[in-house]
Amino acid sequence: MQYKGNATKKRTAAIGRFMRALHTYSAMWVLILLVFFSITGITLNHPTWQSKLGAQQSLTVLALPDAFQAWPAAAEQADYAAELASWLQQQGVKAVSWQPRFEDDEQTLELSFKRPAGYAVALVDFSSAEIELEQQFSGYLALANDLHKGRDAGLLWKWLIDITAIACLLFAITGFYLLLKMPSKKSVGNALAVIGGMMAILAYLISLH
Predict the structure, then answer these.
(1) Which of 8, 82, 93, 110 could link 101 by a cystine bridge, Cβ 3.0 to 4.6 Å?
(2) Residue 171: exposed, middle, or buried by beta-carbon count in 10 A (0-12, 13-18, 19+)?
(3) Alpha-carbon gap, residue 18 to 21, rounded angstroms
(4) Strand 97-103 to strand 130-137: parallel, antiparallel, or no bridges (unpaired)?
(5) How far is it, in rounded angstroms, from Cα 133 to Cα 169?
(6) Could you tell me which of 104, 93, 4 has the C-alpha nearest to residue 56?
(7) Bridge partners (DSSP) listed for residue 112
(8) Sequential DSSP letters for 39-64
(9) Between 197 and 85, whose confidence is greater?
(10) Spatial CA neighbour of 130 closest among 82, 69, 57
(11) Which neighbouring-strand residues pair with 102?
(12) For residues 143 and 149, what is the distance between their CA atoms, to the nearest angstrom?
């Protein structure tokens, strides 16, 4: 019986050490991201807070390269758009994704580029062999807010958001477990958890009236 009791104590102690390590390192692993998402959560909650720091807008006309001056056949349009989009990105267009729209009747092409807090639109006029390029960036605050939401930020950034959310869950769950193992602080911790939950519910209900 004593052997079983000692084994149980050792197992409990091992679980406790594991939970403390997981609690600590899950937070430290994404510490900078937790700070970032906390700050941008506040700025998103106050949409009237505006800043144009870093904002840029431009309208330029580029000569359409010789290799792109012929109107592509329907079967070649996807490859043509991909190659032209790549060329425009080499000219400085920043984008995470892009979408083409061909107008066969007027023989024009519109390429729409998306990025966090910005966009670019390239209108290709085959008759004049010119590209009218409009670019806009809404500033660093808008960039931070869009990154918080994962808007037009790409697949890798979306994975990063998921990883941060999982780390937050681990931090919360392990913190709750560690609190349960501290009898002197368990009652206060449980009370704070209940109060926090009730505050969220009351805030939601009051906001509906």
Answers:
(1) 110
(2) buried
(3) 5
(4) unpaired
(5) 44
(6) 93
(7) 99, 121
(8) HHHHHHH-TT----TT-EEEEEEEEP
(9) 85
(10) 69
(11) 109
(12) 10
Task: Give pLDDT, residue 196.
Answer: 86
Above pLDDT 90, what percent of the chain?
Answer: 64
- Residue 63 main-chain phi, psi, to 5 deg: -75, 130
134 vs 22, higher pLDDT: 134
Q: Is 150 left (phi over 0), alpha (psi -120 to 50) or beta?
A: left
| Contacting residues for 33 by C-beta, under 8 A, at least 6 apart | 160, 164
CA gap 119, 112 in Å, rounded? 7
Task: Report pTM.
Answer: 0.84
* Residue in this structure with the two tokens 């994962």, named with its chain if needed: 150
Token pair in block for residue 121? 């639109």
Pairing of strands 108-115, 118-125: antiparallel
CA–CA distance, 167 with 22 (Å, rounded to integer): 9
Which two three-digit tokens encode residue 142?
A: 């808008």
184 conformational bin, left if phi > 0, alpha if psi -120 to 50, beta if neither: alpha
β-strand partners of 110: 101, 123
Higher pLDDT, 50 or 116: 116
CA dihedral 149, 150, 152, 155 (to 10 degrees): -170
